[in-house]
Amino acid sequence: MMEKMKVSNNQNQPNYVSKIFNVQLHFINFLTYALVLTFGLTLGIILSFYLKECTFSLQFTQLSLSSIPKTPSLPPPIAVKQERIGLKDFLKVPPVMHDMDEEELLWRASVTSRISEYPFDRVPKVAFMFLTRGAVFLAPLWEQFFKGHEGFYSIYVHSNPSYNGSHPESPVFHGRRIPSKEVEWGDVNMIEAERRLLSNALLDISNQRFVLLSESCIPLFNFSTIYSYLINSTENYVMAFDDPSPVGRGRYSVQMLPEVSLRQWRKGYQWFEMDRELALGVVSDRIYFPVFQEYCKGSCYADEHYLPTFASIMFWERNSNRSLTWVDWSRGGPHPAHFLRSDLNVEFLERLRSKKCAYNNGNSTNACFLFARKFLPSTLSRLLKIAPEVMQFEHYDKPKKHKLLLKPII
After folding, report:
1. Which residues contact 375 (CB under 8 A, 6 or more apart)?
2. How many C-beta atoms lie closer than 10 Å to residue 336's C-beta?
3. Nearby residues of 286 by Cβ (< 8 Å), 6 or more positions away
4. What is the model's pTM?
5. Of 174, 209, 248, 340, which is the most buried if we count CB atoms within 10 A?
6. What is the 3-state secondary structure (H, E, C) of 147-165?
7. 265 CB contacts (<8 Å, ≥6 apart)?
8. From the CA atom positions of the chain, what is the Rg in Å?
9. CB crowding 149-181: b at 16 or more within 10 Å, else e
């Protein structure tokens, strides 16, 4: 009996353990389900609040956007054809009144091509450069001279900065004043003014010959004659001679050595005519001009010595050593003679036009001078009256392009 009870107890013991294990398992499952349910509820609550917030923000944004007036949509960009820049555009002449300073101007003017032939058709022009105190008071005469020859000349005027242009300006000179500085007679700043004029004229690639004139200068021939004379010339016209007197060699300073020796020292008029090669040499000179700036002051009169000396040293082979501008020094004194209205008549002008002169070992020319000075403002009315008869301003034909399209002389 006891054995049967032991056997029965032994059989019930595993069932009891199994029941306890099952209870624990159900509790763990219940706890797990509870945790999952709690997590799900929590997540659901969080998501519901988030979605409500997003919906409110979206509605607010839509309301805000709806209150802003709608802007029309921009049209698609239009394709713009890019313009090509050719050589002529690159060489386009800048305005006469520019913002370049002195060094920038000299540098820009000294830029040149080493190829002499031009890759495009070009009409060579003569640059007429007027160095004046104020207005060009003989402008009406020059206007007749230039009339009908547009495209064959350029005009540049360097006047005193204090000149306010109060004098009525002739149409042909309108807008032709370059940026200028003060100039004093006989001072080295007169050479600076000449270099300034040359630099501005060199900016135009078509300018082939360069003439320096004053407000008291007049032409002695019509435009066609002067243009042909200059464009066909192979020489420069810078007066240069050796003057052994005190007003020649006596102005030389030994401080100019070694760049300039007494043997190289020359004198001449400042009124020149030169080709493009010599003009480029003058504006790019960094050897001789600084010497004159430093040592040719006061009674040295740099305007009478710098160009004659420079041309004789650097360009002597092609310099005629004479000027094309007639000046009367026969009366003596530091200044040439000037002419009044009463001095003018047809015979006087004809004598100037027919003068012959011999330079360079006796070589003569049948037209010694193309210009003359010093004619005062009072001469204008008489000049306008007799110029058509003497200089044939009203009787010349307009130059034909096929006759004037000449190759540059370099």
Report:
1. 138, 216, 217, 218, 338, 339, 344, 383
2. 17
3. none
4. 0.75
5. 209
6. CCCCCCEEEEEECCCCCCC
7. 242, 248, 249, 252, 305, 309
8. 47
9. beebbbbbbbbeeeeeeeeebbebbeebbbbbe
> CA 133: distance to chain centroid?
24
Please give the Cα distance from 154 to 206 (Å, whole number).
Answer: 9
Q: For the chain, how are helix, strand and coil distributed in percent, rounded to 5?
A: 45, 10, 45
Residue-range domain boundaries for the chain: 93-404
Could you give the count of Cα atoms lying within 13 Å of 365 in the half-sphere of its Cβ? 16
**Arithmetic mean of pLDDT over the chain:** 83
Structure tokens at 375: 């004619």
CA 191, CA 282: separation in Å to the nearest integer? Answer: 10
HSE of 222 in the Cβ direction (CA atoms, 13 Å)? 18
The residue that leads in pLDDT, 243 or 73, is 243
Q: What span, in angstroms and rounded, lies between the C-alpha atoms of 182 and 232? A: 35
> Which one is predicted more confidently, 117 or 346?
346
**Over the stretch 66-97, which tens digit does the pLDDT of each residue have?**
555 555 666 676 766 667 777 766 777 878 88
Identify the CA nearest to 406 among candidates 76, 101, 123: 123
395 strand-pairing partners: none
Name the residue type at position 261.
S
CB atoms within 10 A of CB 219: 23
Cβ–Cβ < 8 Å for 161, 155 = no
Tokens of 362: 């006796």
